[in-house]
Write a structure and sequence with these properties.
The complex is a heterodimer of chains A (205) and B (715). With 205 residues, chain A is an alpha/beta fold. Chain A has two domains: 6-131, Rossmann fold (3-Layer(aba) Sandwich); 144-201, Winged helix-like DNA-binding domain superfamily/Winged helix DNA-binding domain (Arc Repressor Mutant, subunit A), CATH 1.10.10. Chain A has helices spanning 14-26, 37-43, 63-73, 89-97, 110-143, 146-156, 161-168, 172-186, 191-201; strands at residues 6-10, 30-34, 50-55, 80-84, 102-105. By secondary structure, chain B is α/β, with parallel strands linked by helices. The chains are: A alpha/beta (205), B alpha/beta (715).
Chain lengths: 205, 715
């Protein structure tokens, strides 16, 4: 089950919800339909691959808020497709900036919806792949000793062994040992790979 | 009563008459009155006299008189001489005795009476006054005893008069000579007639009788001192009225009869002398009345109708007077009536004019007689010919068939209740012209019973109606415009409401298409999709239907409206807007389905307005508190209350009392007509709209409407 790509439909309008569910289901997707955003959030399982198709204006929580909650919950970006009855530009801009796949206007054409869903599917797969890669890196990083982690930081910063030894108050030789052990633990051979990995871990730096 | 002369002698007869009447009138006891006539004028010999005395003596021997009244001067000497034989000791009351005679007689006791002085002097004075120009005086006297006494008295009296006349004494003549002489007397002379008891040839006369022929023969006026002559042709004189002499004598006799001593009763002289004249004689000789002495009695004055038929005249005058009064009263009455009629007519004309000017027709109806009265204007209003007889049916037939029952009920109601009743009906005029007429009727009973009189007015209110209709139309226009403007405001939300089912429909249809494209199509799923399409299409249709209702311009309808349904429908119309504004709506609707009668579109407009106001009021309320409560309930029997409560800013102090004013608005884009219209609509539905602040914050809008069928069926 967990492998099946699932479409999460959230719309307070039952008619619309049922219609969209039927359409998406007809295309062969797994569908989970929610008329209440709260229930959706409570039951949501990030681990399941899929995409959220959200109505923008709903009582209580609107689509954009749900998107924000979903994003804040984990580093993982659940792809979101918005459907709205009143497609005003400010709302759509905000949605897209927050990482929405698409912003569709009701009544939604099946082609548009499926195209958005398939893009979401790809995004989800990519996102999932990145996520798992990250997780393995993080797992490897967590195996490092504190001294190895210090060395990693200095290496990624582009410092030479000699400089690092000076900073840490040790000799170059000791640094070399830490460095090779760290590279080994992380399964990385070149410095370039190490830097790329470090960037993935901490994109802001 | 002892008469000196015979029965026909005027003077004595008058005295006797006066005395007799007085005696009978005044005597306390019944009196027996005897009369004897000595007839001494014609029989003067002593033998006759003694025979007469013997006769009387014999006559009264057995019943002597208690008192003797003598009449005529000759009777006193007779009774003095023979009293002892005829009526011994009987008192005697005499009359017609001259002072000279009285003095000459030596009267025995128990004799008293009335002395008559025939006043020639005053008679002369009268003649002189009436004939101041006269210079000749003729004096007539006969040859008898009394006549001769007068001859000497006359000469002396005339000599004593100041005024001197050329006097001719016609004494001692034969009667025929006398008459001849008298006829030659010139016109401007004065003639004094004394007495003619006998002429020179010895013929006896009654002096009063002589007066007539002599007067007739004389060209000049005759005067005499004797009352009895008056009426026989003479002008008059200073005379004794013989009746008064008789009355005086009777009074004396009565005193004596009552026991008074005759000696104590002194003889009286001339008790009733006065100037007396004969009006006819005055006229004959053309003598002027204004020359008469004062207090002169004028006799035989041309008897006036008044004096002759006094009673009849009085009666006639009274009758004429009464009739005049009646006629006068009737005339006054008539004038008053005419004036009242005029006033009434004027008043009626004024009223009719005013009524016609005000387009009012007046009418009255008598049920008993089935008679109808109406002003001309009424006829004109109902298109009834001027001369056509009026009946109630005629009026009713002019009424529009649809309104006839209304008119009939009006008549009936006002006859039963005596309360003024008013109804508006349409009148169809001959030219198919329809006019509105307000009928106002009121009955007035007479005497408490069931009233049979109906009165009232017809007012042509066609113009008023058309103005009202125009106003209503304009109000409808405004209401419509307001609805359109509200819907304009909501257009986005409403579009969304339609968009939702459209989305569902499209999704289902496309799903079905996808399913059909599969190798083994899932028929059940396709069926469900199609059903869903139908359902969603209906839903879209409903929204459009609602919209169309609100957008439609139309007359106000009167239909059954379920208030709870109306609330739900309104909220669903606002659904998207509410979501868009983060406002939640809670409904607290009574189980009882309240049915009211009215126009659902208008009532929905009111609800829509109130909810929109609530929404607007909460623009700056924190999202968590943005909620509206709409509740329905029966606060009192027969009414439903609809309450819209918000948590907004409430009614600000400066707005209070002005919210229902037209064009008063607190919103930036408001027209200020929303609440004004709402109030008008609710009032048109016999309801009331109020707006108050909730103590816990926010405002409460409430309207009450009459419920048509209070039903508690919860099903």
């Amino acid at each position: 089950m967990t492998d099946n790509f699932t479409i999460y439909l959230v719309d307070d309008d039952l008619g619309v919800l049922k219609g969209l569910s039927r359409l998406v289901r007809a295309r062969g997707y797994e569908v989970k339909a929610y008329s209440s955003p709260r229930v959706f959030l409570d039951e949501h399982d990030m681990a399941v691959p899929g995409c959220a198709v959200l109505d923008v204006s709903m009582p209580g929580l609107d689509g954009l808020e749900i998107q924000r909650v979903l994003t804040a919950a984990s580093g993982y970006h659940r792809p979101v497709v918005f459907v709205t009855g009143k497609g005003d530009i400010p709302t759509s801009v905000r949605a897209m900036k927050a990482g929405a796949i698409d912003f569709l206007t009701k009544p939604v054409k099946d082609k548009d919806l499926f195209e958005a869903i398939s893009r979401a599917e790809a995004r989800d797969a990519e996102s999932r792949r990145l996520h798992s890669e990250m997780e393995s890196i993080q797992a490897k990083v967590s195996n490092l000793t504190p001294r190895e982690r210090e060395v990693l930081t200095h290496v990624v910063a582009g410092r030479l062994n000699k400089q690092i030894a000076g900073d840490l108050g040790t000799v170059e030789k000791t640094i070399k040992v830490h460095r090779s052990r760290m590279m080994e633990k992380l399964g990385i051979r070149t410095i370039a790979d190490l830097v790329r990995m470090a960037e993935k871990l901490n994109p802001s730096k | 009563m002892l008469h000196a002369f015979n029965y026909t002698f005027p003077a004595t007869a008058l005295i006797a008459d006066g005395a007799r009447k007085r005696l009978l009138e005044r005597s306390p006891q019944p009196l027996e009155i005897d009369a004897d006539f000595l007839d001494l004028a014609r029989n003067r010999d002593a033998e006759y006299e003694s025979r007469m005395a013997t006769f009387l003596q014999t006559k009264y021997e057995k019943r002597p008189p208690d008192v003797v009244i003598t009449l005529g001067s000759a009777a006193l000497p007779f009774i003095v001489k023979h009293r002892d034989d005829i009526a011994p000791n009987s008192p005697v009351v005499f009359t017609s005795v001259s002072p000279q005679n009285y003095g000459a007689l030596r009267l025995p006791p128990k004799i008293t009476g009335v002395i008559s002085e025939f006043d020639l002097d005053k008679t002369l004075a009268l003649a002189e006054r009436l004939q101041p120009e006269a210079s000749r005086l003729f004096v007539i006297a006969g040859s008898g005893e009394v006549d001769r006494r007068w001859q000497s008295t006359a000469r002396k009296t005339i000599e004593d008069r100041k005024r001197k006349f050329d006097v001719t004494y016609l004494f001692e003549r034969s009667y025929s000579n006398l008459v001849e002489e008298v006829s030659k007397i010139p016109r401007d002379s004065i003639v004094i007639l004394l007495t003619v008891f006998a002429d020179s040839e010895g013929n006896a006369f009654v002096p009063a009788r002589v007066a007539g022929p002599l007067s007739a023969a004389s060209p000049a006026p005759l005067y005499a001192p004797y009352d009895t002559y008056i009426g026989n042709g003479i002008v008059g004189g200073f005379v004794e009225t013989f009746e008064s002499v008789g009355v005086r004598a009777a009074d004396m006799a009565l005193q004596i009869l009552a026991g008074k001593d005759p000696a104590t009763i002194a003889p009286q002289t001339n008790p009733g002398q006065a100037y007396r004249v004969d009006h006819r004689a005055m006229a004959r000789w053309n003598l002027q009345e204004n020359r008469l002495p004062p207090d002169t009695a004028v006799l035989f004055k041309e008897p006036t109708i008044w004096s002759e038929h006094r009673g009849a005249v009085v009666a006639a005058i009274v009758i004429v007077g009464l009739q005049s009064l009646i006629v006068g009263a009737l005339l006054v009455q008539r004038r008053r009536r005419l004036r009242a009629e005029n006033l009434l007519r004027e008043s009626e004309e004024r009223m009719t004019f005013a009524a016609a000017a005000a387009n009012i027709g007046l009418w009255q109806f008598d049920r008993h007689r089935n008679e109808l009265w109406a002003t001309e204007h009424c006829r004109a209003m109902f298109g009834i010919a001027r001369d056509a007889p009026l009946t109630r049916d005629m009026f009713l037939s002019a009424v529009h068939p649809d309104d006839r029952q209304t008119a009939n009920q009006l008549f009936k109601r006002s006859l039963e209740t005596e309360q003024p009743a008013i109804s508006d009906v349409r009148i169809v005029l001959p030219g198919e012209d329809v006019r509105w007429v307000r009928m106002r009727a009121r009955s007035h009973s007479e005497g408490g019973g069931r009233s049979n009189h109906l009165g009232g007015i017809f007012i042509d209110i066609t113009e008023q109606k058309s103005v009202e209709a125009e106003v209503a139309l304009q109000r409808l226009e405004v209401e419509h415009l307001m609805r359109v403007s509200v819907l304009g405001e909501l257009s986005g939300s409403i579009a969304h409401e339609i968009n939702q089912p459209l989305t569902a429909i499209l999704s289902n249809a496309q799903a079905a298409l996808h399913l059909l494209a599969q190798d083994s199509p899932d028929v059940v799923e396709i069926h469900d999709a199609l059903e869903e399409i139908v359902h969603e299409d209906n839903r879209a249709g409903e929204v459009i239907h609602r919209l169309r209702g609100l957008l439609k311009k139309g007359e106000r309808k009167a239909e059954h409206v379920n208030i709870n349904d109306l609330v739900r429908s309104t909220v669903s119309l606002l659904n998207s807007e509410l979501i868009g504004r983060d406002i939640s709506v809670r409904l607290d609707l009574d189980h009882a389905p309240f049915l009211t009668r009215g126009d659902s579109v208008q009532l929905q407009q009111v609800l829509l307005n109130l909810v929109m106001n609530a929404m607007d009021a909460m623009a700056s309320t924190p999202v968590a508190q943005r909620s509206i409560l709409i509740s329905t309930g029966a606060a009192q029997a027969g009414m439903v209350d609809v309450i819209v409560k918000d948590h907004g800013h409430g009614i600000r102090a400066k707005e209070n009392g002005r919210l229902f004013e037209p064009f008063y608005t607190t919103k930036n884009h408001g027209l200020g007509l929303g609440l004004t219209l709402c109030s008008t609509i609710i009032q048109a539905h016999q309801g009331k709209l109020t707006l108050v602040n909730d103590e816990r914050g926010g405002a409460i809008a409430k309207f009450s409407l009459p419920v048509e069928q209070p039903t508690f069926d919860t099903a």
